[in-house]
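Hi support team,

I've been running sequence recovery on a batch of backbones for a student project. Most finish fine, but this one hangs at about 90% for roughly twenty minutes before it completes. I'm not sure whether the input is malformed or the queue is just slow. I've pasted the structure tokens below so you can try to reproduce it. Let me know if you need the job ID as well.

Thanks,
M.K.
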């Protein structure tokens, strides 16, 4: 169970369970999921189709009501709310969708203004707020266009502007880039990252794409069959050879038989170590023969993290391992 923490936590989900149907026909979409989303961070939920991601994010604003469990958003237990109180709480939770969900008969400005109308803003206040929001997402020149006249990326920018209309505490992203091409996806993720940095906006996003997590997420939870199988800071998980995240990014060589007297070692690099000539220094210093089996370096936000699998042969093997560890590297000797 995740204990409810005040102050630095924006979303707390505790023992969340969602079951569709009853008896033998019951389908468990979420099975005792617990997680915390820190205030002002971008938290990714990663999983394949059917893992329960969409159900999870729809429970956070109670578009789906959980079977059991509790959800706190900005210290308010929304699972206890209904009617007017729930509608008011939802105004503080923005949401963007995979297929944009824009009103085709309304202009871009009117699409962004729609939630403001529902919230009772005056015409003058709506006009000013829409102007600010369209400028924020780079579409101030398209205010009088209609959705059919926009590209997919522009439509998603409208969706983001609309989701921010009520100045929410949280932005939920439901596979918001999966319908976009890679270049447009990159620009939308850069926009979300910019909003997070400039506004301190807390973002909870679901995705099946590792690239999304790598580009902008501070933390991630991996869902499989409705269960959380791993969660933590992206950089920490990527630097741990045994983590699911690292194993998907840095696959190990298949069925390798070491030479007589050799040991196979996995070295994890992070930060400045990823740019240092660690291996060449090691060879010279400890008179090792090194056979590189595989490796890769990935970029996570502004940080570079990598793994290298290599076969070491030499009498100073143990001293070489101690040296690597003294540099702050994670070292795993494959058995």
């Amino acid at each position: 169970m995740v204990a409810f923490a005040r102050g630095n936590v924006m979303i707390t989900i505790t023992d969340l369970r969602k079951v569709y149907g009853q008896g033998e026909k019951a389908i468990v979409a979420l099975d005792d999921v617990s997680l915390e989303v820190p205030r002002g961070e971008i938290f990714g939920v990663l999983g394949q189709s059917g893992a329960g991601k969409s159900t999870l994010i729809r429970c956070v604003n109670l578009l789906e009501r959980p079977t059991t469990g509790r959800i706190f958003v900005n210290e308010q237990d929304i699972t206890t709310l209904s009617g007017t109180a729930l509608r008011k709480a939802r105004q503080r939770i923005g949401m963007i969708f995979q297929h944009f969900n824009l009103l085709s008969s309304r202009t871009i400005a009117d699409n962004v203004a729609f939630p403001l109308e529902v919230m009772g803003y005056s015409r003058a206040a709506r006009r000013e707020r829409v102007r600010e929001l369209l400028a924020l997402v780079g579409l101030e020149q398209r205010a009088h266009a209609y959705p059919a006249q926009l590209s997919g990326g522009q439509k998603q920018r409208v969706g983001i502007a609309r989701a921010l209309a009520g100045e929410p505490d949280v932005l939920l992203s439901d596979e918001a880039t999966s319908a976009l091409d890679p270049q447009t996806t990159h620009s939308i993720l850069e926009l979300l990252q910019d909003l997070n940095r400039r506004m301190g906006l807390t973002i909870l996003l679901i995705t099946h794409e590792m690239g999304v997590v790598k580009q902008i997420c501070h933390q991630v939870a991996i869902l499989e069959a409705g269960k959380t199988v791993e969660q933590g800071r992206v950089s920490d998980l990527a630097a741990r050879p045994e983590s699911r995240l690292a194993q998907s990014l840095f696959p190990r060589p298949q069925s390798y038989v070491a030479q007589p007297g050799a040991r196979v070692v996995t070295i994890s690099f992070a930060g400045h170590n990823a740019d240092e000539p660690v291996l060449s220094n090691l060879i010279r210093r400890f008179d090792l023969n090194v056979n590189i089996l595989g490796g890769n370096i990935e970029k996570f936000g502004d940080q570079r993290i990598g793994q290298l699998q290599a076969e070491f042969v030499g009498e100073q093997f143990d001293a070489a391992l101690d040296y690597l560890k003294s540099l702050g590297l994670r070292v795993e000797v494959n058995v």
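--
Follow-up from support: It reproduced on our side and the slowdown came from queue contention, not your input. Confidence is low (pLDDT under 50) at residues 1-6. No action needed from you.
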